[in-house]
Fold:
Amino acid sequence: MRAPAKINLELAVGRPGEDGYHPLATVFQAVSLYDEVTADDAPAGSFSVRVEGPGARRVPTGDGNLAVRAARAVAQLAEAERVDGLGVRLTVDKRIPVAGGMAGGSADAAAAIVACDALWGLQLSRSEMLEVAAGLGADVPFALLGGTAVGSGRGDRLTRALCHGSWHWVLLVAAGELSTPAVFGELDRLREGRAVMEPQLAPALMKALRSGDAAALGAALTNDLQVAAVSLRPELDLVLEQARVVGAAGVTISGSGPTVAVLGEDEEHAGELALALADAPGVARVIQVRGPVPGCRLIDQAARFETV
Ligand code: C5P
Structure:
């Protein structure tokens, strides 16, 4: 299975509910940076994962791993329908930055759902898979769906968004990680004593997506979590500033950061931005991607070589 990373083109955050989750209005886009997840047969009741690739050491491999939890959730659903003797050995080739705001863990979980369904021959429906996904985390349903979509609720209620053509992004992977709950908590702290509106999307971004106009999309990128991420990691401000200075069409952090998404006018311009930012202070890795791309998919060996 190949599962894409996501960026948030717009992210409006409301006041947290009693469960601690914040209501969101967001626009997700899946981009061409993927984790690969392989599922192999294992004895009944055995659920394990091995993680390879950059950052693998920082990913839990026990029951705290989201892909393992996804496999167990699918097995539970199957067992309720009297399918017994299930087990799986997962391998994750981790290319999406860990704790970077690009939903890499959610991508692995989505891939595990589809992979286990195929391995065990369950033929779960799309809506059953989406339900399992929503139970695992707010970003998991989008990793299944892919493309460009509007998310509401916790970010798990999705509607496809109309989008014209391809967009070309440069991802600046900042050194270090940011904890998602810490960034949401910092936003609440910064907003203390102030009125907070219900989260809403501005019409400008959806209009820009339909028009294919990079300057308009760049101007419409917003993320309420950016101020909180910068408050926790002030050096992020410099990364954002450097991307603006080299002439990006738009700049935003993705999700709760610290990854910064930089929009190019077209593929060539994005390539120039990637070169200009390769040695920028505070940037550990620069990755050029395009979006939207489909959600997680089964790949065969031939397709795999084509896309390397
Ligand atoms: O759902 P997921 O496990 O990915 O969320 C991680 C954390 O991010 C949550 O525990 C919560 O602290 C925060 N979060 C939130 N509101 C959302 C999504 C995530 O507060 N809509």
The first helix runs from residue 66 to 80. The mean pLDDT is 93.
